[in-house]
Amino acid sequence: VNYNQSDHLPINNMNGGAVLLDDGNIVFNSMDGLCLCYPDSLTTVRPPVPFHLLSLQILTEEANATQMLQPDAKGVYHLDPEHNSFRLFFGASDYAQSRYLDYEYQTDDTGNRWTPCSRSVVTFRGLRPGTYDIRVRARIKGQHWSEQNVITTRIQIHQPWWWTLRAKALYLLVAIGILTILIRHYLHRIRLTSEL
Known about the structure:
Layout: E1 14-20, E2 26-30, E3 33-37, H1 39-42, E4 51-59, E5 66-69, E6 76-79, E7 86-92, E8 101-106, E9 115-117, E10 121-124, E11 130-140, E12 150-157, H2 165-195
Parallel strand pairs: 6-12
Antiparallel strand pairs: 1-2, 2-3, 4-5, 4-7, 7-10, 8-9, 8-11, 11-12
């Protein structure tokens, strides 16, 4: 586990001195004074922090133009095919702990591999039409991942209108119609040449 100035440590000015006290605590020497560390508190197992999906933001080609989307009654987000780039924002229920959390996400196409997030946001670009289950998990830094602290979000990107089942049926009917006309024309020409 790495700690830095966001954990209230002095910024890059440790003098390299450290002392292990009789009670097991460690004192570090810095230019700003002494830093006391309680190692036992670093290994304390804490319960998973509840967190949830905050929003889904559709990314558009226009600069600074974004659109927030709400899920349907079943919690599924429906996107048009031209809105296949988006961001998922998630966060802890306890805002005070949010800066101490690590996040990872997993999609159907990554198998069992979890991908770390540098912040509480994941960006997806240019996804193909289909249904995606995106799983996100959180932990307090230095703790173990808990499978009980996973949220799943379903995203459905619809097919473009020209690739829907109705459009394909229309294409088939048009092809059958053209083929029928060509066959009738061919048979008519054969009949005419045989009569001569």
